[in-house]
Write a structure and sequence with these properties.
Layout: H1 14-33, E1 37-38, E2 44-46, H2 47-54, H3 59-64, E3 67-69, E4 75-78, H4 83-92, E5 102-111, E6 123-132, H5 137-153, E7 160-165, H6 169-183, H7 192-200, H8 215-218, H9 229-244, E8 250-251, E9 263-270, E10 279-285, H10 289-294, E11 300-306, H11 307-316, E12 327-333, H12 336-351, E13 356-358, H13 365-374, E14 377-383, H14 385-390, E15 392-397, E16 403-407, H15 411-418
Helix pairs in contact: 1-5, 5-9
Bound molecules: histidyl-adenosine monophosphate.
Binding site for L-histidine: 81-83, 112, 126, 130, 257, 261-262
Main location: cytoplasm
Pfam family, one: HGTP_anticodon
Length: 420
């Protein structure tokens, strides 16, 4: 029996790990310039957190969670997203007692039992930010700017920012009624999923991929035209702050997001070239979530980006990340004695911080030179009996072919000079 990785999961092999590390490093750099601090929460949580936080009537909670009973009889769920966990942690650790707002970011695996396809996996990785403790609309614009900056610094373009406001429980309840009345005559024409959504979650009809494009969908009442005064004012300010930063957006009344905790601002950044799964990042405000999971009225906003989707977009746009997978030196040896001497130098060079490799398979000089190439060595040296006797070595620059003889005892310093 051949055991393979579970459906919807992927090994990340070293040639790809380098890209992931690059992405994580640039994320940490940019996020810290916006003063976000990293938080790491458990990969699994009490199931109830997601039921209450994300909402019982969402696809995630209804169909996509990896839920199991642990040996202690507790219902546990592998996290399908990071926001509920961050809010739980914020409350549990009483972070609200410190100076606000709190700006956290996270990078890690999430798990959803979805039908795998390009850009959609069962274990996937998100990098996300959450700001808790401020309802200032400037923060909404700030995190959108942050997400876009990251993608732009990676070299991506042709991204679309879609923006909506999903209002507050008060105006959304009224809008919900309007929507139910509006869709009533079209109930038969809706897809079977939407007929189901009609009673439980009618806003989700708006972003249905099946019903999209049907005439009556275009004329549905727009939520951003039905906001209460407070939400409208808030939305105007978000747009104004985006304008201040010269960030273009597309008003999108059908953007309702798949999680129930959103209030007011909701947004997604899309790259059309990705096909069906074209959202690179999505997020919004969730001013009622802390109340829902911990009984405290604390506003919040955040987004999460699918890291696989960032990498797919880079590929689609033909962008090579500037990844250096070279080593500084490969030591080729001839004979047992030289091999042992090289082994000592290998250790010294590595202790000096250089990336160095040698042959361990007793290969011919020719094969060792090939190994130097395969390892992308910038320099190589050959050590044999002769070199040892004379106490010299020839350093070869693998790109230019230039060779220079040095004293073997100076090898570490000579190499340090060449590598900055
Ligand atoms: P979400 O829209 O469910 O939001 O996911 C955010 C991003 O994660 C998506 O735009 C997509 O790039 C990626 N993603 C989601 N599911 C998958 C999947 N199965 N395979 C690959 N990538 C996927 C959230 O998770 C919210 N917690 C975002 C948020 C943070 N809102 C406020 N704060």
């Amino acid at each position: 029996m051949n055991i393979t990785a579970p459906r919807g999961t992927k090994d990340i092999l070293p040639e790809d790990t380098a890209k992931w590390q690059y992405l994580e490093n640039i994320t940490r750099k940019i996020f810290s310039s916006y003063n976000f601090k990293e938080i790491r929460t458990p990969l699994f949580e009490a199931t109830e957190l997601f039921q209450r936080g994300i909402g019982e009537a969402t696809d995630i909670v209804e169909k996509e969670m990896y839920t199991f009973e642990d040996k202690g009889g507790r219902s546990i769920t592998l996290r399908p997203e990071g926001t509920a966990s961050v809010v739980r942690s914020f409350l549990e650790n009483k972070i609200y007692g410190q100076a606000q707002p709190t700006k956290y970011f996270y990078i890690g695996s999430m798990f959803r039992y979805e039908r795998p396809q390009a850009g959609r996996y069962r274990e996937f990785h998100q990098l996300g930010v959450e700001v808790l403790g401020s309802d200032n609309p400037a923060i909404d614009a700030e995190i959108i700017a942050l997400g876009l900056q990251l993608l732009e610094e990676l070299g991506l373009d042709n991204l679309e920012l879609h923006l909506n406001s999903v209002g507050c429980p008060k105006c959304r309840a009224e809008y919900r009624e309007k929507l139910i009345n509006y869709f009533k005559p079209y109930l038969e024409e809706l897809c079977s999923d939407c007929q189901d959504r009609y009673d439980r979650n009618p806003l989700r009809i708006l972003d249905c991929k099946v019903d999209r494009g049907k005439e009556f969908m275009n004329n549905a009442p727009k939520i951003y035209e039905e906001l209460c005064e407070e939400c409208e004012d808030d939305f105007d300010q978000v747009k104004e702050f985006l304008d201040l930063l010269d960030i273009d957006y597309i008003l999108d009344a059908n953007l309702v997001r798949g999680l129930d905790y959103y209030t007011k601002t909701a947004f997604e950044v899309i790259y059309k070239g990705l096909g069906a799964q074209d959202t690179i990042f999505g997020g919004g405000r969730y001013d009622g979530l802390a109340e829902e999971v911990g009984g405290r009225d604390i506003p919040g906003i955040g987004f999460a980006m699918g890291m696989e989707r960032i990498l797919l977009t880079l590929e689609e746009q033909g962008i090579e990340l500037p990844i250096d997978n070279s080593i500084d030196l490969f030591i080729t040896t001839i004979g047992e004695k030289a091999n042992k001497e090289a082994f000592k130098y290998l250790h010294k060079l590595r202790k000096a911080g250089l990336k160095v490799e040698m042959d361990y398979l007793g290969r011919s000089v020719k094969s060792q030179m090939k190994a130097a190439d395969r390892n992308n060595a910038n320099y190589s040296i050959i050590l044999g009996e002769d070199e040892l006797e004379k106490g010299v070595a020839t350093i070869r620059n693998m790109t230019s072919g230039e060779q220079i003889e040095i004293k073997l005892e100076n090898l570490v310093e000579e190499m340090e000079k060449r590598i900055d």
